[in-house]
């Protein structure tokens, strides 16, 4: 059984109110069945990108192959090829991915099986329950609803069952895996028809819970079901402030490098920590006005930097001030505990490249709402140094999934932010398209 991590941070009033509303929706008398999407709704992993888990397999691959390319590189290439080949009319499975991987890498059949088993063990190890999803699941069980869970990942049924059971979801009634019902990956809402059949009740008596507006809200409603949206934590984190865009702009070309593994995992756990119960961006704050969250992502990642020392006097003042506040320092404590809980000592091997960036962001670009949480603990000299008006940071587009871009697209990202008129004009020039 997964041993849950309980953070110090209390929910905000808005989060507590939202949770009550969601629980009330689940326990409505006209619901006789509840359908859940598995990933992001019930189960999470501690990674910014799913591909980050592949770094844990590099040593295993090195024992099986002399290929100079990394396991991560080959594994991503194999998945992309499988999605192109099988996705439109069929299903991408782990077996199909590794068939392609074996051809790319030249590993033996036994080596292929060892890597498949290793990946399955890792996804089982790293998967953990989303606290809010678990509360909604338990409420549905208490109401004697029939529970249907849908998993559209490429992992086999036995791995999915093991993950669900060890995350505390063993009491479901049906597990829907689209491949088993000949629903191709391209039919993104086809699973809902199977949910209705498995439920044994009329569509109007089913509540569906998931995180994608199109697939999990609009599509169920069209079929006569009710729907409740539990937004994924990563997009919520990205939208909550400017920090992630600032980091992406600083490392537009290399943020996916291994040396930034610790920073990426820090951001992933920050998303889990702060947005398990969804919350929106707060005015004049990049950290939802929450001291715990400020300490979690600003002070916490500094633990990865060997021999860290502040770059200047102001950074020293800011760190000392934040450490004096029990709520801010409590956030840092939670970060350290959560990192060890999920990763042990493994992440430290990649170093702490970029882990000072949240501190740099606070130093130069912080909104007044976040400054006011630190100012009371600053010395008179610190207030004087920090008294200058904050600058506006350069921000880059943020993608919660890795996006491969050609050199011209990368140039456009650097020079012209997405969504601006000048960006639209630049894309027309770079791609040779004329504006209608």
- Helix segment count? 20
Task: For the record, give the distance between the C-alpha atoms at the N and C termini, rounded to a whole number.
Answer: 58 Å
Instruction: Give the overall form.
Output: globular
Give the structural class.
mainly alpha
What is the percent of helical residues? 40-55%
* Element order: H for helix, E for strand: HEEHHHHEHEHEHEHEHHHHHHHHHHH
Oligomer: single chain
Give the integer mean of the pLDDT values: 90
Residues in β-strands, percent = 5-15%
Number of domains: 3
- DSSP, total strands: 7
Briefly summarize what is shown.
The chain contains 20 helices and 7 strands. The chain has 436 residues and is mostly helical.
Structure description:
- With 436 residues, the protein is mainly α.
- The protein folds into 3 domains: 13-45 and 127-230, Rossmann fold (3-Layer(aba) Sandwich); 50-126; 235-385, no CATH class.
- 50% of the residues lie in helices and 6% in strands.
- The chain is built from 20 helices and 7 strands.
- The protein has helices spanning 13-26, 58-62, 71-86, 94-105, 109-126, 131-142, 157-166, 191-199, 213-222, 233-239, 243-250, 261-275, 291-299, 313-324, 326-343, 357-365, 368-374, 380-385, 407-415, 421-431, and strands spanning 33-37, 43-44, 128-129, 146-150, 174-176, 206-210, 226-229.
- Strands 5-4-1-6-7 form a 5-stranded parallel sheet, with helices on both faces. A two-stranded antiparallel ribbon has the order 2-3.
- β6, α9 (213-222) and β7 (226-229) form a beta-alpha-beta unit.
- α10 (233-239) crosses α12.
- The longest helix has 18 residues, at 109-126.
- The chain is globular.
- The N and C termini lie far apart (58 Å).
- Residues 417-436 have low confidence and may be disordered.
């Amino acid at each position: 059984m997964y041993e849950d991590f309980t953070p110090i941070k209390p929910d905000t009033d808005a989060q507590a109110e939202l949770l009550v509303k969601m629980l009330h929706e689940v326990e409505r008398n006209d619901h006789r069945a509840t359908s859940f999407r598995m990933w992001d709704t019930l189960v999470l992993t501690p990674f910014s990108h799913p591909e980050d888990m592949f770094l844990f397999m590099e040593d295993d691959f090195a024992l099986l192959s002399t290929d100079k390319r990394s396991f991560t590189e080959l594994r991503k290439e194999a998945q992309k090829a499988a999605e192109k080949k099988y996705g439109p009319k069929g299903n991408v499975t782990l077996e199909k991915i590794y068939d392609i991987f074996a051809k790319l890498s030249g590993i033996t059949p036994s080596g292929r099986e060892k890597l498949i088993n290793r990946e399955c063990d890792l996804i089982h190890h790293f998967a953990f329950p989303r606290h809010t999803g678990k509360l909604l699941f338990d409420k549905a069980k208490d109401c004697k609803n029939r529970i249907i869970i849908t998993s559209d990942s490429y992992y086999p049924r036995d791995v999915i069952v093991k993950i669900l059971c060890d995350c505390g979801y063993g009491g479901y009634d049906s597990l829907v895996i689209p491949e088993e019902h000949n629903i191709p990956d391209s039919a993104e809402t086809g699973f809902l028809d199977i949910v209705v059949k498995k439920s044994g009740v009329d569509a109007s008596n089913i509540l569906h819970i998931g995180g994608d507006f199109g697939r999990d809200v609009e599509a169920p409603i069209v079929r006569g079901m009710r729907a409740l949206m539990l937004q994924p934590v990563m997009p919520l984190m990205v939208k909550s402030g400017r920090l992630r865009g600032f980091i992406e702009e600083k490392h537009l070309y290399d943020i996916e490098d291994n040396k930034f593994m610790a920073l990426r995992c820090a951001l992933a756990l920050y998303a889990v920590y702060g947005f398990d119960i969804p919350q929106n961006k707060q005015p004049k704050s990049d950290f939802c006005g929450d001291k715990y969250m400020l300490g979690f992502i600003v002070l916490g990642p500094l633990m990865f930097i060997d021999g860290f020392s502040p770059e200047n006097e102001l950074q020293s003042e800011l760190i000392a001030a934040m450490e004096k506040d029990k709520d801010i320092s409590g956030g840092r404590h939670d970060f350290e505990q959560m990192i060890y809980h999920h990763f042990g000592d493994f992440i430290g091997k990649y170093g702490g490249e970029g882990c000072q960036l949240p501190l740099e962001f606070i130093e130069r670009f912080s909104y007044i709402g976040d400054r006011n949480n630190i100012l009371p603990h600053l010395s008179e000299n610190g207030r004087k140094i920090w008294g200058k008006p904050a600058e506006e940071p350069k921000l880059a587009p943020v993608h919660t999934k890795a996006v491969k871009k050609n050199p011209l697209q990368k140039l456009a990202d650097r020079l012209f932010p997405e969504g601006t008129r000048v960006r639209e004009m630049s894309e027309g020039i770079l791609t040779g398209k004329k504006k209608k």
